[in-house]
From TrEMBL:
Record flagged with keyword Transferase: yes
Residue ranges of every copy of the N-acetyltransferase domain listed in the record: 17-156
Native organism taxonomy: Bacteria, Bacillati, Actinomycetota, Actinomycetes, Propionibacteriales
Transmembrane segments: none
Pfam families listed in its UniProt record: Acetyltransf_1
Keywords: Transferase
Identification of the protein by name: Acetyltransferase (GNAT) family protein
Coiled-coil ranges (or none): none
GO MF terms, alphabetically ordered: acyltransferase activity, transferring groups other than amino-acyl groups
UniProt xrefs under PANTHER family: FAMILY N-ACETYLTRANSFERASE, PUTATIVE (AFU_ORTHOLOGUE AFUA_6G03350)-RELATED
Length: 156
């Protein structure tokens, strides 16, 4: 099966921060550090898992400090590139939360890119208010799901 073409080139600068969907800019070490120690959904992943997930993502968006270039937020999407996408690994570093970066990150990923008209899905135990701003809500009755068997992929 041929891989989907990467969709990148979006770069948005919001004062102190840049939102960029260049996958080569992602700081994999910083991403793994956050996913393996700070978030409930990613602690089971190895560095290689994170590297492979970023490499195979349809789109990634990083949040970077404009001056230092430090990655302070991230979101990843898996998609067929035509009609649907799954949003994953959305985070902003704790010391920068409350500044609207999470809202802007989801906006850039979901509304500001090539998937603006897609059906989007995600799993989250929190931040329902954030995602609700972008039309996310409980699934309709036709939705079925097979839970993951890998440790950490189920309900927290």
């Amino acid at each position: 099966m041929p891989s989907l073409p990467r969709v990148n080139g979006v770069k948005s600068v919001d004062g102190e921060f840049e939102f960029d969907d260049d996958p080569d800019r992602v700081d994999l070490d910083a991403l793994w550090e956050v996913l393996s120690t700070q978030v409930y959904w990613g602690k089971w992943r190895t560095r290689d898992h994170v590297r492979r997930q970023v490499a195979s993502a349809w789109r990634v968006v990083g949040v970077y400090e404009s001056v230092s270039g430090r990655m302070v937020g991230f979101a990843r999407a898996v998609s067929d590139g035509v009609a649907l996408a799954y949003l994953a690994d959305v985070y902003v570093l704790p010391d920068l939360r409350g500044k609207g970066l999470g809202t802007r990150l989801v906006e850039v990923m979901v509304e500001g890119g090539p998937g603006a008209d897609f059906r989007w899905m995600l799993h989250t135990a929190n931040a329902h208010g954030l995602y609700g701003k972008f039309g996310f809500g409980p699934p309709d009755p036709s939705y079925l799901e097979r839970p993951g068997r890998h440790p950490g992929t189920g309900t927290p």
